[in-house]
Amino acid sequence: MSFILSLDTSTQNCSVALHENGQLITQELVDEEGSHSRSLTLLIEKVMKTAGRTLAELSAVAVSNGPGSYTGLRIGLATAKGICFALDKPLICLPTLRVLASAVDAPAGSLLLPMLDARRMEVYAAVYTPALEEVSPQEAHILNQESFQTFAPVVAFGNGSAKWQESCTHSSITFLDGPLLPEAQYMGKLAHEAFLNQTFENLVTKEPDYLKEYMGTKPKLKSL
């Protein structure tokens, strides 16, 4: 038996879900850029209240741990760690692109290619089998005509695939319509599997999987 709270803050979506043995009980989502810091704990409270359960009843807390928004990932992991520390619960971290891949059913014979926008012509991407086995790991890619050609046929999706669709000429690559993003509701089966295998993280040392270093900009100085 597992009763797992799942958090995803990797994109502009801020989502929370409760799963029992991998099956969704309830979920909440806010689609608003920069809402994570003020919305996440409120969504957790609402989800637990809707389910009529308490945090003390949790078996574990799962968090989508990157790649994605630097700030969002930090907020999600810090919140998950806080709950785990306070209640002595195990922490489960899931690759964000695998979470996204779990939302899609691939046609027979095709691989899954989840892609998240990483600005300009760069994306975070990975390749999975329909059973979510990793074929190519999560990496930052600069898109070009040759990208992912060796993995065809593939189904590409996520907000990083849209900017590639116009220039991609591979007939063996199919693009799904719509800005599909990772959400906590898709984490249930993956989190349950990790719980059964006791694939838990160190609460002290675990960090988000950014995939590339943060490149901040200096604030502009106002003239007096």
Question: SSE layout and pairings?
Answer:
Layout: E1 3-8, E2 13-20, E3 23-31, H1 36-51, E4 60-64, H2 70-87, E5 91-94, H3 96-101, E6 111-117, E7 122-128, E8 134-142, E9 154-157, H4 162-165, E10 173-175, H5 188-196
Parallel strand pairs: 1-4, 4-5, 6-9, 9-10
Antiparallel strand pairs: 1-2, 2-3, 6-7, 7-8
Helix pairs in contact: 1-2
Structure, explained:
The protein is of the alpha/beta class and 224 residues long. Residues 215-224 have low confidence and may be disordered. It has a 5-stranded mixed β-sheet with strand order 3-2-1-4-5, sandwiched between helices. The protein has a 5-stranded mixed β-sheet with strand order 8-7-6-9-10. A hairpin with a 4-residue loop joins strand 6 and strand 7. Helix 1 packs across helix 2. It has helices spanning 36-51, 70-87, 96-101, 162-165, 188-196, and strands spanning 3-8, 13-20, 23-31, 60-64, 91-94, 111-117, 122-128, 134-142, 154-157, 173-175. The longest helix has 18 residues, at 70-87. 24% of the residues lie in helices and 28% in strands. It contains 5 helices and 10 strands, in the order βββαβαβαββββαβα.
